Each structure stands twice: as structure tokens, then as C-alpha cells.
Amino acid sequence: MRAFREALLTHRDGARVYAGTHATGPNTLGLAGSLVGALREAGFDAVAALEKALLLMHFTTGHVLEEQAATGGEAYSHLSEVGEHFTTMNYADLFERGIRLMTTDLR
Asked: pTM for the full model?
């Protein structure tokens, strides 16, 4: 997921382009296949592994969408006091926290 995130970040609007397509090419299928395989090796049945893989891929895509589109929230009362942090936060750290939360209880 880290490599997937980095790949999306390498291109301007990479997550938006990826999310806007139903990619069935070798790169996307290769990523999904590798992730399903790793989850199968960790003990998940095929269906559960596929579901977990999709969950992680969707989380990563959504996270990068937000990361690439971050703008100030000063016009919104609940975001006004964190407006600067909203645009300057460490998205890599936030991503790591999200991945940890999602993989702590995959079953």
C-alpha cells in the first residue's frame, strides 16, 4: 500500500485519474493479486482476502485523493482553528496511522 500510495503521488492528480477508471490492466491486477496472495498466506480464505485487499486499496486511493486535493478550511467554522494544519499536515504519518488501524483487526 505504501508503494501504491507513492505511485499515485508521483503523478499530478494520480489518485483522481486512477479512481476515475476501472483499470483491469496488468499493473492494477498485479497489485490486487499480490495483495490477495499476501493475505491468503496470512490465513484468510479467498473471499476474505479479496475483500480486505479492496478495502486497503480503496482506503489508499481515497487518502491520496484527499492528500492531493488538500485546501484550506478557513471558511468552515469547525476547521478554522486547524486550517493551516489541514493543508500542511504530514499525510505520510496520517496514512501510516490509517493503515495500522485498518490492519490491526482485519478478521
From this structure: 0.72
